[in-house]
Amino acid sequence: MSSEKNCAQQIKEISGADPLKCMKCGKCSASCPSFNEMDIKPHQFVSYVANGDIEALVNSKSLYKCLSCFACLERCPRDVKPAKLIDAARQLVVRQRGKDYLTADEIPELLDEGLPQQLLVSAFRRYRR
Amino acid sequence: MQRVGVFVCHCGSNIAATVDVKRVVEAISNEPGVVHAEDYQYMCSEAGQALIAKAIKEKALTGIVVCSCSPRMHEATFRKAAERAGLNPYMVEIANIREHCSWIHKDIVEATEKAVILARAAIAKVNLNTPLKPGESRVTKRALVIGGGIAGIQTALDIADAGYEVDIVEKTPSIGGRMSQLDKTFPTLDCSACILTPKMVEAAAHEKINIYTYSEVDKVSGFVGDFTVDIRKKARSVDMDKCTGCGVCQEKCPSKKAPSEFNRGLGTRSAIYTPFAQAIPNVPVIDRENCIKFKTGKCGICAKVCQAGAIDYEQKDEIITEKYGAIVVATGFDTIKLDNYDEYAYSQSKDVITSLELERVMNAAGTTKGHLERLSDGKAPKDIVFIQCVGSRCADDRGKSYCSKICCMYTAKHAMLIRDKYPDVNVTVFYIDVRTPGKNFDEFYRRAVEQYGVNYIKGQVGKVIPQPDGSLLVQGVDLLDNKQILKQADMVVLATAIEPDPDVRKIATMLTASIDTNNFLTEAHAKLRPVESPTAGIFLSGVCQGPKDIPETVAQAGAAAVKAIGLLAKDKLLTNPCTAKADELLCNGCSACANVCPYGAISYEVKEVNDHGIREQRRVAVVNSALCQGCGACTVTCPSGAMDLQGFSNLQIISEVDAICQ
What we know:
Chain A is mainly α and 129 residues long. Chain A is built from eight helices and no strands.
């Protein structure tokens, strides 16, 4: 893996989220339906990215326990977008294993206007093959 | 030609670290008119001012340029220094080489070049300055206080005690404001009514205070020292002189289903009502929307039972026009609406309430006579959960960006009072941070934890889920234990963010007082002039300026009063001589200037003018210099260039631009 600092930067870029906006209220973890399944909790995701501790993060099973329900993102008072950070970490793992699961040309026909785009992308990532 | 002196300030390192001040002095020394130039470490200090005075006298200067901070900061300082040295104060120009230059640049070469350019512009302007003499305007020895809560009452009492007449305008039927709705007050737990109502009585009985309740400010014109205000006394439908306050009308009124504003909609009231028993004045109003007489024409019971014959269905709104020297805004706050917070189930369950609603539940004069009970079924709660920061400290579009400041303390108060009165009730507080700066505040919070056993959990609540059995399931997190918590509760209290009363926007517009993005009124200076609006003669009292608790509000109310008294104590005010003036020969009488003037300072006269030997009658613009505030709107509107602003003439501005572009 490239340097952890670099990875943290990538996660921020992919997600468009800024972990520094977090005020550590824990509302993400309070809202998460998969909380008990996770080893690293949603609010910790934010601080792991902020602290550049990416190795532990990408090896966490939490990546695959997140349901992409976006409750954390909807309720976060600071607009930190924990679900997008988690999603970006997943993306990072996927990219490091070789490639994106979807190519850019495949996306348009998969789009349904009624569906949140993030949901589609993260669902494909999880339920591939 | 003027004899100009230029004084370049280092401002410690504020300017000197980014601008080569010696180079500035050197560069402008040969500018037209400059006969003296020097730099000094702190030009605003006594020693710096002495340098200026010395140079004015020794070099017979007729104008000076000070290259320093913003004119908002020290223009007045340097004008006074010049005046003491015998120079007309309007022969002083400031080149702002701090805020406009050193603070925003990093490169010393660039910043120095810009400082030289700004200095040149000011020199070009001062060369065209003419001595100006301020006029005088009168001060009406009367103050208006908008809002009759604790802030407005305290300000009014302090101004009145200094011997000046004060009018309070309050939009609801009684003075008292939010504080009258509270049960106990932190950090001493004394009863809110017990400390507020004597002040209300004192205000009502004060010979210098006149209270207009059920009234609103309709229109404001004029300026500092001489405001003219229209106050709309809304039709009360009750004659205030005749009513004895016996209360029979309220008892007999058959329409009793209107939601009580005073009880935050938790209870109902009659259509003819006083908001609460200790209301001042103790004269009811008829809420015409809920009155059967007004809705159907039938009923009229209140008029029949009123022994004093005070009921007057024909009463109309009345406009009172009054003059004031100073206006204090004390419009207070409300809690935010919780429409965007579905996760807390506020609209789904009657047992999820705001803290202000809990005040009405706990208050002995409230809907439940002070018994703590669930609003859904009247049962005594066993588990109460408090949620902090609901809508405060938000970066999203649902809440407010600021900390509402009072919630940590009132929640500790509520928790403590409940545990004291009902020791078998479990009280849990979900908090993000506990913020208790204030005298005896943290001790108070610690008492809630250590003596009263309130369970404080560091973490937020994600969701409140109403259960089929009527209880509430609270899903939250304990961040210190790193555990998600599912907690049964039968009452949830939301520490709801506060926001300025929505009417403040309307009032600020009328007063031309500025407000920030959160609708809080802006101070003239955040640190050094915290109770004054940037608009002269307008003062700020209480939460309309920013979130604050009762002790702070009372302190600020006194400060606003002192500032208002300082103004009212003056017999005359010096007016700004930088006012507009019309050139009769150029004016074509088109009225464009009068149409844009926000102060109504321009009128028209038919005058005989002598235009190069031709005598004729012409319609020309005339500026009332007492009303003109020198905004310059007319000068840029005038199509013929007849309108000019003294001290900022078109020629002066053009010469500044030329100096910058040379």
